[in-house]
Design brief:
6-stranded parallel sheet; 52% helix; single chain; 12 helices
Length: 255
C-alpha cells in the first residue's frame, strides 16, 4: 500500500456519465428562456447532444447547445463556430453567463426536489467506478476537481455510497480554475505524487503548459467526453492514455 500517491479526478466524463441528465436539464432550462421550445425533449436530441458533449466545458453551456439543436444547427456547424454561436444566443436572449449558471443550477434543484431518484438514475457512474472509489479512500488521498456545482456531486456520491469529505470536492462554487486547484493541491502535497485524471483535452493541454504544474502526472480518460480527433492529438502529448478497464486496473496496481 502506497500512501504517497494523490489522485485528482474530474467528475463528468471520468466518474459520472451525466450526458443524458445534462441534456435534459439544459433543455428544461432553455424552455424557460425560449417559450417556443416544447417541454418534451425528443430522444434524437439527446443523442445529438451526446455527440456535442465534448465541446462543453461547464454545464450551463448545455442550455445554449440544446437551443442550437432546436434551431436545427448541424453538429458540424456547432463544432466549427461554437463560440460565435453561443455569443449570439447570449446577446439575443439578453442574459449573462452568470444568469445561465444560476438557471442551470435552479433547474437541477427543482428536478431533485421533484424526483431525486429519477435524477440520480440519469447520472449513472461508469461501470466499475463506484466500487473503485469506495475502496480508494481506504488506501489513498483523492479529490474531485469539477466545473459542476458541489451540491450535485455530493448527491451523486451519496447515492453510490462513496465517502469523500466536503473539503476534497472542488466544484464551480469555489470560483477556482482547475489549474488553480492543482496548484493548491501541489502546495498541500509537496512531497507526494499527484495524478490528475481528465477527459477534456484542452484542460490537460492548459495544465501541460503551466510550468508550476510540471510535477503533475496527467491521465487522459479515453472513455469520457472526447472525440476521435482529441484522442489522436492526445497520443502525441506526454499524457498517460487510459481506457476505462486500464484505469480501474491501474488503481489496483498503484495502491
Amino acid at each position: 500500500m502506497n500512501k504517497t500517491l494523490i489522485y485528482a479526478l474530474d467528475f463528468d466524463g471520468v466518474i459520472c456519465d451525466s450526458a443524458v441528465e445534462t441534456a435534459m436539464t439544459g433543455w428544461k432550462a432553455a424552455c424557460t428562456l425560449w417559450p417556443d421550445m416544447p417541454k418534451t425533449i425528443q430522444p434524437d436530441m439527446i443523442e445529438r447532444f451526446r455527440v456535442l458533449r465534448p465541446i462543453i466545458e461547464t454545464g450551463y453551456e448545455a442550455i445554449l447547445v440544446m437551443r442550437l439543436l432546436y434551431l436545427n444547427e448541424s453538429i458540424e456547424a456547432v463544432y466549427s463556430s461554437y463560440n460565435d454561436k453561443i455569443k449570439t444566443l447570449l446577446e439575443e436572449a439578453q442574459v449573462s453567463v452568470n444568469d445561465l449558471k444560476k438557471l442551470f443550477g435552479k433547474t437541477r434543484d427543482q428536478w431533485i426536489a421533484d424526483d431525486l431518484a429519477d435524477w440520480i438514475n440519469m447520472n449513472p457512474l461508469f461501470a466499475g467506478v463506484a466500487e473503485k472509489l469506495q475502496q480508494l479512500g481506504q488506501h489513498n488521498t483523492w479529490y474531485i476537481i469539477t466545473t459542476k456545482q458541489e451540491r450535485f456531486v455530493k448527491h451523486i456520491l451519496k447515492a453510490y455510497a462513496i465517502e469523500l469529505a466536503d473539503e476534497r470536492i472542488f466544484g464551480l462554487d469555489r470560483n477556482m480554475s482547475k489549474i488553480d486547484v492543482l496548484k493548491a493541491l501541489l502546495h498541500s502535497h509537496n512531497t507526494e505524487t499527484l495524478y490528475f485524471v481528465e477527459d477534456r483535452l484542452p484542460t490537460l493541454i492548459n495544465v501541460l503548459g503551466t510550468n508550476t504544474l510540471s510535477r503533475v502526472k496527467l491521465i487522459f480518460a479515453l472513455w469520457g467526453y472526447n472525440t476521435a480527433e482529441d484522442k489522436a492529438l492526445a497520443a502525441k502529448q506526454p499524457f498517460i492514455l487510459q481506457q476505462l478497464e486500464d484505469f480501474l486496473a491501474w488503481y489496483r496496481l498503484m495502491r
